[in-house]
TrEMBL record:
Region entry Disordered, spans: 1-34, 956-989
Record localization: Target cell, Target cell cytoplasm
Extent of Gly residues compositional bias: 962-973
Predominant location category: cytoplasm
GO MF assignments: catalytic activity; toxin activity
Organism lineage: Bacteria, Pseudomonadati, Pseudomonadota, Gammaproteobacteria, Enterobacterales
Domain VENN motif-containing: 849-897
Keyword Plastid: no
Protein name stated in the entry: Hemagglutinin repeat-containing protein
Protein's UniProt keywords contain Disulfide bond: no
InterPro entries: Hemagglutinin_rpt, VENN_dom
Biased composition (Basic and acidic residues): 13-28, 978-989
Alphabetically ordered keywords of this record: Target cell cytoplasm, Toxin, Virulence
Amino acid sequence: MAAGRDVNLTTAESREYQETHGKRKQEITESVSQQGTEIVGGKHVQIIAGQDINAQAASVTAKEDVYANAGRDINITTATESDYRFFEETKKKSGFMSKTVTHKVEQDYATSEKGSLFSGDNVTLSAGHDLNITGSSVIGDGDLKLKAGNNVNILAAVEEQSTYRLNEKKKSGVFSGGGLGFTIGTTSSRHQIDDASTTQSQSASMIGSTGGSVSIFAGEQAHIGGSDVIASKDINIIADNVLIDPGHDLRQRDERYEQKTQGLNLALSGVVGGAINSGFTAAQQAKDESDDRLAALNGVKSALYGVQAAQGAVLDSLKDVKDKSNDLVGISASIGFQKSSSQQHLDQNTVTGSVLNAGNDLNIIAYGKGDGATSGDIVIGGSQLKAGGDTTLSAERDILLTGAANTQKTTGKNSSSGGAIGVSAGVGTEGKMGVSIFANANKGSGHDKGNGTQWAETTIDTGNQLTINSQRDTALTGALVSGEQVTMNVGRDLWLQSQQDSDNYDAKQQNVSGGVSIPLWGSNAGGNFSYSRDKMHSTYDSVQEQTGIYAGLGGFDITVGNHTQLDGAVISSTASADKNQLDTGTLGFSNIENKAEFKTQRQGVGISAGGDGGGKFIGNVAGGMIAVGGNDGSASGTTQAAISEGTIVIRDKANQQQDIADLSRDVENANGSISPIFDKEKEQNRLKEIQLIGEIGGQMIDIVATQGAIYGEKAKKDPAALAQAEAELQAGGLEITQKAIEDRAYENGLRTFGTGGDVQRATQAAVAALQGLAGGDMSQALAGASAPYVANVIKNLTKDNDAANIMAHAVLGAVVANTNGNSALAGAAGAAMGEYIAKQLYPNTERDMLTEEQRQTVSLLSTVAAGLAGGITGDSTANAFAGAQAGKNATENNALGNKCGPVYCKDGIGVMDGGGSVIGNSGGGGGAVGLGAIIASIFGDDEPPVPNVARNLTDAEKADMGGTGSGTPGGWGPQDEENARNREQQQSRFDELSKIYDKNSPSQELTIDGQTIRQGSGGNRYTTRVFESQNLTDNQIYNYAEQLAGQPLTKVKDGIYTTRLQDGTNITLRNISSSNTGARWTVDIKGNPQMTQLENGLRNIEIKFR
């Protein structure tokens, strides 16, 4: 085929378009496909053009040779195929007194590049000006030659993907207002996602010879961008200048969410009503929470609201008529609004390096005859070069080997605000009513920012001789070059510098709210205020892959005209010292400090007195909650400059600045890299735990104080207590009146449990200690290294109050005993807690000899301990609900010997009876309702899961039951079992490879799926092993590669699968091989720590299956 001007091999485009419409719904789909030109030659194919040859998604194949020659340009490119979909729908739904409108938009667009193919025995492409190959393949069975008078460009094509989602919802009328209330008004939400990306990783060009060599000649630049060049023999690239760089996958994602509610809200209020409403809300939060511990803590909150509600009823029933509450149960009505918004932005750049793989020799020459800025340069960035034989890089000017950056940047912000004003009306046990007006408001805002960089280093892996020659400078910045023997001649300066991966994150969130209640008649004034601030800060900078020159048994011979500088880099050799020499004018070296640190902090305070009308504060005294805590950590290491033992010649001694004696010669241990220590999700949950533990602590303190008030009210009616009070007044010479006697009796009953009392201070200390340990394994922390911290917290908070100090230690001791050996659900665990606490507080008193006050103290502290244990170890809402009450019930009915009434036993949650109980009816004696029944009536039955039933079984017993379970040192938790088995199998595989690559007595066998295969010929004693695998299927070899990875492989293209492990190991499975071994599959392993620690220090290895 010949033309005086152009030869155009174009495509025929086909389009499919479909559009459908319905009631408030439409959908559009469109697809574009391309059919390229096909030329098939029985023998040879020749294409000659006086000007240009343009091949778009064309296929040119021949049984023998393919030859194309153009007077100007040859353009071998892609044709774009695409798929588009648009969907929009609006739905309207009317219900009882409500109407809902939803609007949904979905839009997707994606392009794929259909490349061209030139294939034959020997393939030659020659252009007078430029030769451009984009997203296409040029394959030859023999030799392949690419020639251009100007530039040769072998590039990846660019594909596009975009996704848009919009979901809008608006509801008007009557709907849930949160808790057990409802709202008459409107609520709306809007969720929008816009995700757009361009990729090159899936549309790389491929230049390959399956049986010969690949040669590329360019009068100006030879550019290989995000593409592959493979030859079974040699690869030769000769040009004025050479650029080899990666392709880029770019992504931008924006997400925004808005919500707004306004209208008239009706809800339960008052002491009991408000608690039930709050308990319902906490239970819903527990069900919606994905983290088990946070769900459990919310469950504890919900259960304790039930306790507080019952306490409020009991306390009110014991008061004199004139003191009884006017708002035990009530209704609040308020007009208000609440709105919130959040948005997140992501920018991401992922690089895919070019790959050059030669079975024999790899030669890259930049002869630099031009006068351009890059003339005579070789620049290689973030790419991988490999040769089975020798590698030569020769530049008339500079050689620059650099890493390429994978980057990610995230930003986010959020805000919320709201307020309400309303009226609350309540009624008490005597039918008295109270009315108050209230107002509340809230505001919150936050922001976060993160950015990270992970370097993809350039690697040159040479089986034999590596030669690098530059007339001017050579710089390795994020590059690792290796060869059995390394020879370098640098005209001016040699620079070696390692690059640090980095990851930084900052976040701040603050919220403030407050409310006030003003009585109109028969009610009490009240108010509340809360403020919280969360801050997170993390930085990470560390070298992962150390830049260096890595020589084998042949050693290194490096000559530098002027200066050699090593910044955290190495010149390494496994040869004897006499084979290693560096000859340079001057030598400089420095270390790189690796550092990671983070700090998280939560500061929160809540103050409440009385109530806000919408939900009365349960306590009968002023209440408050402080949540302060956080976490921090740091790690450091040093990446040192080092040179293996050998001869270092410094020619310009007058200008030598550093003492060579200070240079490290320990190349094996030079890279003191560190791993990231900050886990954002884990630390966010830790701060939430601190908040919830503080809120639970506030509830616990209120329960203790209210119980003291109950004891005080009972004392006012107890003849013995009144007699003791009268005697105390007489002894003090104070005026004796009926009111004075009752007040003293009340104070005596309240003393141990009221504000500042021993039990309350002990509770505060225990809660504060647990807040400080939030986020980790609390039971291990309490029992282990954190014990001094806990003791110090308790000491500071209880000061010189020995009784409170002992109580706090008793509570935490019971928590440890429970979490280490029992479930919070088990009654026996609760009894054990009570018995433990009783022994700690009253070691010399038998159980049946405890006084009523001592029993009450043990009972309350058991409730606190069991509730805390349920929160920190629970794995479900039901578990957390049962924790506090099971401990209390078991303590009273078993540890303290109280009889168990039929209602209590039936409900499984005994709540004290009228003779000294937390929960009882107003009549005092029989007929008390268990908290289990209250919770069940509100939330419904929640059957708890079986808690860690295998924790005390041996591994053999677990095996009989179908596998290793949780709870023993030799086992894994159910959620970790698959991952743990994968890690175990992965470690076994690498141990097997360590024996195969052992320098002194290497193993010759590999076992896969019970079949033992042996090594054959074709490998080398350094990096490559070839196994006879004729009896193995492709699937068995794939499974073996996944076992090495310990995780699924990602498909790059047909026949190539890869993954990167957390320790930096890269594993690739490929069915393409440039060697003459006849391998059908090859597993490449790069940068594995276990393999690099072998005596021969293997950074890159190949396992081939023939």
